[in-house]
Amino acid sequence: MHKVVDVELGVDILAANKRIAEENADVLKGHGITSFDFVGSIGSGKTLIIEAIIEELKKRPGKGPKVACIAGDVAGDDDYRRFKKHKVMAENLNTEKECHLDAHLVSHALEHMDLKNIDVLFIENVGNLVCPTDFPLGAQKRVLVISVTEGDDMVRKHPLIFRLSDIIVINKVDLAKIMEVDPKGLVKDVRKVRPDAKVFMTDARHGTGIKELMKAMGL
Amino acid sequence: MHKVVDVELGVDILAANKRIAEENADVLKGHGITSFDFVGSIGSGKTLIIEAIIEELKKRPGKGPKVACIAGDVAGDDDYRRFKKHKVMAENLNTEKECHLDAHLVSHALEHMDLKNIDVLFIENVGNLVCPTDFPLGAQKRVLVISVTEGDDMVRKHPLIFRLSDIIVINKVDLAKIMEVDPKGLVKDVRKVRPDAKVFMTDARHGTGIKELMKAMGL
Questions:
Q1: Beta strands in chain A (DSSP E)
Q2: Interface test with A, best of B11, B125, B153, B156 (most A CBs within 10 A)
Q3: What distance in Å separates the CA atoms of residue B63 and residue A216, rounded to the nearest whole number?
Q4: Which of B73, B159, B175 sits opposite A75 (nearest CB)?
Q5: What residues are paired with A40 via a beta bridge?
Q6: Strand ranges across the sheet with B89-94
Q7: Quick check: helix, strand or coil at residue A120?
Q8: CB B92 within 8 A of CB A122
Q9: In sequence order, what E strands does B5-78 have?
Q10: pLDDT value at position A213?
Q11: Does the beta-carbon distance from A43 to B16 stay under 8 Å?
Q12: A66 exposed, middle or buried (CB, 10 Å; 0-12, 13-18, 19+)?
């Protein structure tokens, strides 16, 4: 019986989330902010990729666009502190027990931020390949980061989040050989669930593939 | 408002899950089955560790105890097929959209299994460090598998599941140096949230640490 209740409540929460996500999208658009929702499992490299992009943007004339980050995690402020080191605006969002950010949490984070002084916003979701799937946050594009250390079967295990992401990044490709995982096999699996997906290979630790990814993100 | 509804329903579901978990525990105990709930993020090495334990058990006189596995995943049957290759009894449990197994799903899997012919049961939960936390399944012990590829901050980000696991395994220690992660730092973080935890280091790909882990599991 609890299953039925769960589903009905689920629909209401998803509808409410969608409405608030649209409001967030309007707020961000109204301020001319380019925004991204980064999703992916823990350790896939979301934070490091965002950090690499921030450093690339800083190299541009006039120090580049003004960047802000929202660091979403169940607990702690490790990612928040990493972003602050790059001298960008940052907000820490702890979900406590929730396994994903939602549009409502993000809307409160946006209230604390000086939106007039932001050109590009990175929202880093909780490390999880299941729960964030159905919760759009209002960002313009969703970037899904997976890594070769997650095994060669991970696309088959989590097809839905691949369908609902705009850009897919396969990170840590430098470890592919030692992990005995073929990144091309991952790309093939991605193509099965998302034939039109933009897929990029990166090695964020050494900066490989970041510029190509940024181009796809319109940065 | 939806937050209040969520919490109230949550408590009911958790209470119902706990009750069914106790029923599962009784069923397993009644059949003299030693049982384990393996939790951990995707790619941490849960399946490989269970496979390594199965092969170790097979070396025993009389081919060792009779093993069964329940492979929990959102989608697909990759892990189920891996278990079947070891000629053990196996059930595939797809949660479809749910981010964790629950006691109710496991009770149905148990209905399909020949419990009289099982000595040791491994239940492999969905790859997720948040959602399985509050859902005991009825297994005697919970084994949490993390890996050095998940970053040096992962304990701080997910303290709760460490508190609610009996045995903690740090896997892929052979990659610690290349990942620039110090396993001792992870152990230190684990000790902060669980001073009494049994912590083991393994490299399941090369069989390192498996026997020590089995001893702690009473196998």
A1: 34-39, 67-73, 89-94, 120-124, 141-147, 167-171, 198-201
A2: B153
A3: 55
A4: B159
A5: A128
A6: B89-94, B67-73, B120-124, B34-39, B141-147, B167-171, B198-201
A7: strand
A8: no
A9: 34-39, 67-73
A10: 98
A11: no
A12: middle
Spans in chain A with pLDDT lower than 50:
1-5, 7
Distance CA B80, CA A124 (A): 32
pLDDT tens-digit series, residues A159-197: 999 999 999 999 999 999 998 899 999 999 999 999 998
Global pTM value: 0.89
* C-alpha span between B203 and B33 (Å, rounded): 27
**A71 Cβ contact list (under 8 Å, min separation 6):** A47, A77, A79, A80, A82, A83, A90, A91, A92, A93, A124
Q: Smallest CA–CA separation between A113 and chain B, in Å? A: 24
Low-confidence residues of chain B: pLDDT under 50? 1-5, 7
In sequence order, what are the residues at sequence separation of 6 or more whose Cβ sits closer than 8 angstroms to the Cβ of residue B113? B68, B89, B91
What integer best gives the mean pLDDT of chain A?
Answer: 93
List the structure tokens of A82. Answer: 């990493």
Token pair of A100 as six digits: 């994903």
In 10 A of CB B143, how many CB atoms?
28
Cβ distance A159 to B12 less than 8 Å, yes or no, reads: no
Cross-chain residue pair A147–B149, CB shorter than 8 Å: yes
Write out the H or E segment, with its range, that includes residue B143.
strand B141-147
pLDDT tens digits, B29-47: 999 999 999 999 999 999 9
Q: Could you tell me what percent of chain B has a pLDDT over 90?
A: 89
Q: Which residue shows structure tokens 């039925």?
A: A4
